[in-house]
Amino acid sequence: MMNWTEIKKQSLALLVDRFGEREAVAMIRVLSEDLLIGGALPMQEQDLQQWFQALDRLLLDEPIAYITGISYFLHLKLQVGPGVLIPRPESEELASLVIDYIREHKPHTKLDVLDIGTGSGCLALAIKSKCPQAEVTAIDLSTTALHTAQDNAQRLELTITFQQVDILSKDTWSNLPARLDIIISNPPYIQNNERDLMSPTTLKYEPEIALFAEGDPLKFYKAIAQLGSQRLNAGGFVFVEINEFLSQKTVSVFLDAGFHPVTLMKDINGRDRMISAAWIL
C-alpha cells in the first residue's frame, strides 16, 4: 500500500509538466485538504482511487473547485458545482467594499440589500454574515445557482431571501423589494471577442450564462441602473464588478441614469474592476 509521501511525489510528477511546479504543489495541497486525503498512514484503496480520479479531472482542465465541491470566499466555505460560477478574488474585493461601507456609514441601520446574479450566493452571504442588520434578497435566473446558494445559506445558518428573477425582464421586477439601500452585482460582462484571453478551464466548464453578455455587453448594467433609479432610497448605492475593457462606458451608463458621483475603482492588480454609484435624488 502506497504511503502519502509516495503519492505526493507521483502526483507532482503528473501535474508539473502541465501546470508548473508552483501551481501543481498548490493543487495537491488543496485536494488533500478539501478531499480529506493524506497523512502518515498508508492510503486506503478507496481514497487512492478518489485521489487519482481527481488528478485525471485536473488534467482535463476541470476546475479544482468542481472536483472538491468547495470554494472559499473571504471567511466563508461555500459549496459549488457545475452550472454555478466559481467565486473570484475580484468578487471578494467587491464584497469587502460593501461590508466596509456598511460598517463605516450604516453600522446599526436596517438596510435592504439586493444581490443580482447571486450564483453561489457568495456576495449575499458574505454581506449578511458580517452585517446581520441587512435584509438581503438574492436573485438569479439559474435554478441550479439558486439551489446551490440556498444550500449554502442553510448550511451557514444565514437568512437570505432567494428569488428566480431575470433582471433583463422588467415584468419580473414587481417581485423585488419596493425600496432598496444597496444593490450589488457581478453580472455577465465578457464579450465574445475576449474568449482568447480566458483559461480553458473556465471556457470548458463554467456556465456561459454567468460569464458572457451576448449582444450588448452593457445590457446588465443598464438594467441595474434603471432598477436602481426606481427603487433606491435617497443616498443609496450600486456596487458592481465590471469589465476592465469597458470601464469608462460602464461609468457612463450610471451617469446617464442620474447617478452621482460614480466612482471607478481598481482591484489589487491595478485594473479598473469596480464601480460605486450613488443615488442622491
Structural class, please?
alpha/beta
Main β sheet profile: 7 strands, mixed
Overall number of strands: 9
Oligomer class: single chain
Question: Between the first and last Cα atoms, what is the distance in angstroms?
Answer: 70 Å
Low-pLDDT windows of residues: none
**Count of runs of 4 or more consecutive helical residues:** 10
SS strand fraction: 15-25%
Question: Helix and strand succession?
Answer: HHHHEEHEHEHEEHHEHEE
Radius of gyration: 21 Å
Helicity level, as a percent range?
40-55%
Strands of the biggest beta sheet: in what spatial order? 5-4-3-6-7-9-8
Give a structural overview:
With 281 residues, the protein is of the alpha/beta class. 43% of the residues lie in helices and 19% in strands. It contains 10 helices and 9 strands. It has helices at 4-19, 21-35, 45-59, 64-68, 89-105, 122-130, 143-156, 200-205, 219-231, 247-256, and strands at residues 70-73, 76-79, 111-116, 134-140, 161-164, 180-185, 232-241, 262-266, 272-279. The chain has a 7-stranded mixed beta sheet with strand order 5-4-3-6-7-9-8, sandwiched between helices. Strand 4, helix 7 and strand 5 form a beta-alpha-beta unit. The longest helix is centred in the middle third of the chain and has 17 residues, at 89-105. The chain is elongated.
